[in-house]
Amino acid sequence: MNLNITTDKTHRYDAIVVGSGMTGGIAAKELTEKGLHVLMIERGREVKHIEDYDTATKAPWEIEHRDFITVHSAEERWANRRFGTLASDATVEFMTNDQQNPYEEKRPFDWIRAYHTGGKSMHWGRQTYRWNAPDFEANAKDGYGVDWPIRYEDLVPWYTRMEKFVGISGKAENLAVLPDSTFLPGMPMTPPEQHFRDMIDKKLNRPVTIGRVANLSKAQPWHTALGRASCQYRNKCVRGCPYGAYYSSLAGAIPAAKNTKRLDILHDSIVAEVMYDEKTKRAKGVRVINQHTNAVTEYFARIIFLNAGSMNTAALLLNSKSNRFSNGLGNESDQVGRNIMDHHLGVGANATIDGFEDDYVFGQRPNALYIPRFRNWGNDKQTAYLRGFGYQGGANRSDWKRGTAQDGFGASFKQEMTQPGKWSIGFGGFGEVLPNPNNRMTLSTTKKDKWGIPLIVFDAAFGENEIAMRKDMMNSAMEMLDAAGFKNITGNNRQDVHLGLGIHDMGTARMGKDPKTSVLNKFNQVHDCKNVFVTDGAAMASSSCVNPSLTYMALTARAAHYAVDQLNKKVL
Amino acid sequence: MMNRRNAITQLSLLLGGTLSMPTVQAMSRLEKREIVTPINSNFSLTNEQRSLIAEVAEQIIPKTDTPGAIEAGVPAFVEMMVQDCYREPEQQSFMAGIEQLQQQNFLSKNGAEKVDMLTKLEADTKEQMKTYQVKQTKMGDNEDKEVMKAQLKGLPFWRLMKELTLLGYFTSEKGLNANFEYVPVPGKFELIKLKPGQKLYAY
Q1: B35 near A CB under 8 A
Q2: Which end of chain B is more exposed for a tag (fewer CB within 10 A), N or C?
Q3: Percent of chain A scored above 90 by pLDDT?
Q4: Contact A234 B184 (CB under 8 A)
């Protein structure tokens, strides 16, 4: 390893943001807009918005292996390929090469990564929900984890700010369990979905709403000002959108931050360590390794935001050792790397639908339905498990793909395959995972990556609560499909799903009131090193069951404004 | 036949493939054959075997008033896919299926005989898939995976041929454009009523 460290005093910024993904982007946007000069550091390659979405406009026949990947790619991306469609020929080059970026599994952990500008915000599912008020009280009520140091009301203005910036399509329902966002127009439900919604309302008194999704159903002036346009209903979002119609760090936050002319971005630059100054008792900067040349450079700033992704952020804290913090920066509580949460999935049901034969759609809706949590909510009390789950899914008409599982071949078979098949419908659950200190990641004491950074070792698994919840997730999905009068109902509950596969991994540097049992305070500051802010998923003290990105972004914007305020007051 | 795979396929169809929903997307993991076998690919075809694949593909999707599998380039697509995207168990079962048809002199049979042979092959494959299905289910239930792996054979030839022929044909430039209305940029999402004889949309 090259140890010629460049310590250039000109490498000084007001703020350093580690990571360019969902929260790194927002941190950079908010800090630069408040007047700070920011250095954003991305460990992976540069992806230029639109220009580098090289498969985005390809026709089906131009994607060589279609939705498959080669055996060679599958070997290289041994973890990423565990997640179905993210491992397709159209996206594989954006997903991290796991052979070159290995990790260890004491127990299996499905770690899905995208090391490039924008990170996973380029490939995310875009389902966007506020947490509800009781979500922030769950730990205090049932005693798992530590109490959140904030409540729903603390985040409301920041939710609103982020929703407006991001652009969320959805329908206001006025439900306490799923608080409304500031919405762009919602997308339509298909007739079988409307039927399902009506039957579930009538028979089970449960709401079903159209998914709330970060696609611009109607671009607003502040979106178009950033070069974003309305959704074209291609549903090829995962390849990157040439219209900037779905929100990503690439399409939204980074352009906004660049507009201030106060943002510098480094690519191919792995932050190996946050450097701590024993005299000032503050972090002074970061040590960075170029992933190609191995050159080491130090950068300095008054505040540092860690947005590397929950697992990498925790690894960075653990790897930042000093006299003051011998177990890793801010880790006196020994909570860094613990309490890994995610949403457990791969469980639900599907069915076929008779009728609706002349109903069809034009365009591809990048969205489906959402069924908010109904368990352990209101009058419902489950004895088998705590907390709850939501469902996502919807109805589609089958196409030629049904032919593989159908008898026949020849001219009439071919003709049949050009006609629409039956409608079918399916839902999959997203379940809350309890915080458990024994679900953790540590740094390997023996193995390092090619840059000399210790490998992450995962040792985590679902517990009894999640396993019990999954049974109900399958059964309740079957019950709802039955209530709607659908046929051929099949339940599924995959046993080979591990923590991580929800790609909502979180919790490894939790917020809390007590420095003895938590890593971050109520403004996402490391308790004992106040100029370091952690605002990615690592900060989460519990997981709720709704998709987390909006909450991460809201926490980030709130922390960024607080940080600037503290700088202005000379507290930091 | 294959309830589990059917279920998975249907569910993934529902969501158009790229929805947020890891649930569904993750399910295709099973389809993508999470079976670790050393890569030791000796897969290669003779010209006679290539002709045989072309003939089977054309039997599945023949030329009618629209192009057939051969015209759409399916045979080369099938060969590429088996070579690039499948591991040894599938490559072996694929070769076994070809060799079986060679032994039966498939290429020299008349049209009706070919249809009979493939009809029987489809029926036999259904039986094989039942066994395969049981094994898959057991694997999913986390029973002794090592034993299961050793016992697990590749998907049968006909099953591979049919899936790859359909995929290759309906996503080919000729096959897609001849049978569907290609709409790369819909620009809107609308609920509509199908008109008699209307072509379906492809995106």
Answers
A1: no
A2: N
A3: 96
A4: yes
